[in-house]
Amino acid sequence: MELKRRNRVSAEFSMSSMTDIVFLLLIFFMLASTLVTTSALDLILPKSKAQTVKRKDITVNISADSRFSVGNRVVSPSELENAVLKEAGGKEDAVVILRADKQVPYEQVVKVMDIAYRNRLKMIAATDPS
Q: What's the pTM value of the predicted model, to 2 decimals?
């Protein structure tokens, strides 16, 4: 009498759940990488224990060699005010975030502060949390 085996182990492996997980991880890392803020100039900010405000209004960067950039666009000192006003776009509550390298002469910082004051824009000086 010959008995037939009914339970056979299948050698097939379904990859659909693995591809779903890889796809979700890919979407997560793509979204997370777009949230990283990059600037046009490489800056070393002064240290501070103050709380950093994360706003996405108008970012003005001043590098150690006194180059200005508004957002990700490098501008000349004569174009600085027009570029800031263009970025503000007439917003009532626009905030200028000043990211000045710690080697920048104080005169350059005051120049940006004066532009914000004359145009009634709020100003935040960005620092590196220590």
A: 0.57
